[in-house]
Design goal:
Elements: H1 17-23, H2 29-38, E1 46-50, H3 58-61, E2 67-71, H4 75-84, E3 89-91, E4 105-111, H5 119-129, E5 130-143, H6 148-157, H7 173-178, E6 186-196, H8 198-206, H9 209-212, H10 216-232, E7 237-249
Parallel strand pairs: 1-2, 1-4, 2-3, 4-5
Antiparallel strand pairs: 5-7, 6-7
Length: 251
């Protein structure tokens, strides 16, 4: 697999994998429990974590007792994933092209990533890999822009967003509306907070694809503004999120 196989903006994750691991939050325990229960994960089951990144979701699925297989197209992310979640099988692949046999898994999960996929092609490939009546779970930590620190950060970085795919657009839902291979999406929503100091805040925001892809001087400028935001909020910045969870069953 090469970076040409993924969306151009996502190629930036090759260079920010370490910042992604340091700065991105995990997922709240209640959201993980919801996914584990909804997807019927447990001993004897196999779950494929797609676009696994550095393993933020992968590591939280391991305690379910299911066999966890991580699929990730970016080499830098796979490097960190193998180091942070030892013992989990990690393979190079995309949601649209998984190096897996038909009916290889009982469930698939996608953390922070379905909006990057070519939706219809990804659902067809996921359906191929799932066993009959297999289940698909999606989760995103969505920044709560009603909170002042998150709103300040959004003003700072929105100028760089351009046409980068986003959860907020809702376009990811179109593939599900067009697909007859999966039943309706069920959903649940949770809240969480991440507290970061200056360095953590810089890592968190520079791990955003369209920020990480900026040239060095512009990244330094953004980092300086982030440090100023942190100082205005007393050094340790609480960041509020809403964790959106969805799941559906293959037909």
């Amino acid at each position: 697999m090469t970076l040409m196989d993924i969306h151009g903006a996502a190629a930036a994750f090759e260079d920010v994998a370490d910042q992604y691991e340091r700065g991105r939050p995990g997922y709240p325990a209640a959201a993980v429990s919801f996914l584990v229960d909804s997807l019927a994960l447990g001993p004897g089951a196999t779950v494929v974590d797609l676009a696994a990144g550095t393993g933020k979701l992968t590591r939280l699925l391991v305690p379910s007792g299911a066999r966890v297989l991580a699929v990730e197209p970016v080499a830098g992310m796979r490097r960190v994933l193998r180091a942070t979640v030892p013992g989990v099988d990690v393979v190079d692949g995309t949601a649209e092209h998984m190096p897996l046999a038909d009916a290889a898994a009982d469930a698939c999960t996608v953390g922070q990533a379905f909006h990057w996929f070519r939706g219809e092609a990804a659902l067809a490939e996921i359906h191929r890999v799932l066993r009959p009546a297999g289940r698909l779970g999606l989760v995103w930590n969505r920044r709560d822009l009603s909170q002042p620190p998150q709103a300040e950060i959004d003003v700072l970085i929105d100028r760089y967003r351009g046409a980068t795919p986003s959860l907020a657009s809702g376009a990811w839902r179109d593939a599900f509306a067009a697909s007859s291979s999966f039943g309706p999406l069920a959903e649940e929503h949770f809240t969480m907070e991440q507290v970061l100091g200056e360095d953590g805040l810089v890592d968190r925001v520079l791990s955003v694809s369209y920020v990480g892809s900026l040239d060095e001087s512009e990244r330094r400028r953004v980092a300086g503004e982030l440090r100023a935001i942190a100082r205005r909020h007393g050094g340790d910045v609480p960041l509020a999120y809403v964790t959106d969870c969805y799941w559906c069953q293959a037909r």
